[in-house]
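Appendix C. Worked example: Xyloglucan endotransglucosylase/hydrolase
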Amino acid sequence: MDYYAISLFLILFVACGYADEFLFAQNYSPLWGGDHLSVLDQGRVVQLLIDEHSGAGFHSKQDFGSGYFRMMMKLPGNHSQGIITSFYLTSIPVGGQATNHYEFDFEFLGGHNPKAYRLNTNVFANDKGHREQQFRLWFDPTADFHKYELFWNQYYIVFFIDGTPIRVFKNNTNIGASYPSNSMHIEASICNSTAWVGPVDWSQGPFIAHYQGFSIDGCNYDTLNPEACNDWNAGKDRKLSPDQQRRYHDARKKYMVYDYCSNNSKKFVECLVDIPVEERIEEDTNSAGFNPSSNWDENLHT
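Step 2, the predicted output written as structure tokens:
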């Protein structure tokens, strides 16, 4: 089993300005869009463009069973209503059909100006999803790169923005909820959806997103030993730090504008636990699993 190690040292190093020098082609490949995907700065930056003819996307070369996945993104400016810029993990095979599957999404929904952007996070648990939590952003996502991260192990999925946890999705299989345990890979794309987020004013385009930071810290999925990745980060405490807990509550209180459990609680077993929503969030936070291994080995970082 190959492990791609993660460490608290690494996270702090990145947060303090470490430049991720891994090139796009080392871990990723173009998926669709042809010349609407451009590799820039000698492989350090990828540009995705959408116009009335096509969008574009890329995917990781490997599948994973757990890990810490991040991407630096700079979103399209202009009047971007109807444009969706994304970074996510999915179990759908490359080129496969979108049936019931596992997936966790960062989806940025464009608006009439940068302040109108909404972040839609979603979790698919062997179904069609609809576990949306949406957030206003507290910064201009079009002015510079920001870091978006997904942490996934057998206990929790944690969504981060610039190091601030904004969402925790707990493994609740003990009460009948589904939780990903099979292989997943990374995808990123720019597309449009009139039915979901409205029509696009193509006269404002083309719309361009930029991605950088192409290293991956995860456990390679082994089809011969599918449970091998359960040990990834399993021996450490799995809690947000007090500072992370404070920032988690602050971000959700100030910026969360939609929570599926508040609107469709009867449809999802994880929303039916006999605990009020705010107390449930508190419990998730106090139990959340993000204390990476201190056994950092540069040879395992890809």
